[in-house]
Amino acid sequence: MQFTEQQKQLIFLHYIHPVPYSRYQSLLQDNPLIQDLSSYPPIRLQQLLGLSEVNACRITQQFHEVSQLPLIELLHETDIIPIPYSHQDYPKELTELCDPPAVLYVKGDRNLLKKPLKVGIIGSRKATSYTKKALDFIVPPLVAQEIPVVSGLAAGADTMAHQAAMQYGGETIAVLGHGFSHMYPKKNEKIAQEIAENHLLLTEYPPYILPAKWTFPMRNRIISGLSNAIVVTESVERSGTMSTVEHALDHGKEIFAVPGAIDCPLSAGPNKLLDEGAKPLWSGFQILDSLQGNTI
């Protein structure tokens, strides 16, 4: 991949200070090409990036160190490709977020990002066999139309969604809430490797970033942003799944929910969504009908 000098500087900056693109706006207005950042007085960086004095000094020093390294080549050696915000391969859908990722780090087939339609499938980490059964009705029609399944590679419903897409010969995009050096959950290392080899792994975090409570809600906005529609299988009423739905609603995405038994706690989330206007879902063909206006 080819990068402009500004894109390279953004990759360097993001590597040491991984925040959304919106957090760089003051700096970019002051210095659009991000030139000579290591020579900035720390107090100036404090003002432009909203940092403490200690962090501003750290960034000045680390930026100088990182910019001397062949960082992009080193990432490539581990099959990681950075995609900065202004690059032609950056997904247009994510530019519509109020806080888009400044840089995406991907492993695998980045052409999946250019697919015109994508469907997010999410649900509880404690999802049951009911989710798996539901996916047998939902996923095959999507696969037949070459629509990738997007999810978060968490335990439970996310993993089932990725597996269903691959089982039926389709494509899948896994959005991680951490860097590539720290797989979470550990038991998903094998499926993550398979996705990286034949599909697409994606994260907004440099490889060294550990999973944390705050990284997963941030991850959810990317799942929602990439997807034309969101499917909820099983979920409790208040959960990370619902935060993804809120992001999707903010951007006018279609929400589908799989109806569940009224005596099952994991039906509370989708059933409440149905009460609030989500579309009941029992077949992937319903999603195709809804997306027809977006050209299949």
Q: Which features does this protein show?
A:
296 residues; alpha/beta; Rossmann fold; 2 domains; 9 strands; 12% strand; elongated
> Mean of the pLDDT scores?
94
Oligomer description? single chain
Task: Please identify the structural class as seen in this structure.
Answer: alpha/beta
- For the record, the count of structural domains works out to 2
For the termini, the CA-CA separation is 29 Å
Given the structure, what is the number of helices? 13
Q: Using the coordinates above, name the CATH class of the largest domain.
A: Alpha Beta
Shape verdict: elongated
Q: Report the uncertain regions.
A: none
| Helical content class | 40-55%
How many runs of DSSP E, i.e. beta strands? 9
Task: Describe this entry's structure for a reader.
- It is built from 13 helices and 9 strands.
- With 296 residues, the chain is of the alpha/beta class.
- It has 2 domains: 5-79; 110-294, Rossmann fold.
- α7 links the parallel β3 (119-122) and β4 (149-151).
- α10 (215-226) crosses α11.
- The radius of gyration is 20 Å and the shape is elongated.
Provide a quick synopsis of the model.
The chain has 296 residues and is of the alpha/beta class. The protein has 13 helices and 9 strands.
Summarize the SSE layout with pairings.
Elements: H1 5-16, H2 25-30, H3 42-49, H4 53-67, H5 71-77, E1 81-84, H6 92-95, E2 103-108, E3 119-122, H7 129-144, E4 149-151, H8 157-167, E5 172-175, H9 189-198, E6 200-203, H10 215-226, E7 229-232, H11 240-250, E8 254-257, H12 268-275, E9 279-280, H13 284-291
Parallel strand pairs: 3-4, 3-7, 4-5, 5-6, 7-8, 8-9
Antiparallel strand pairs: 1-2, 2-6
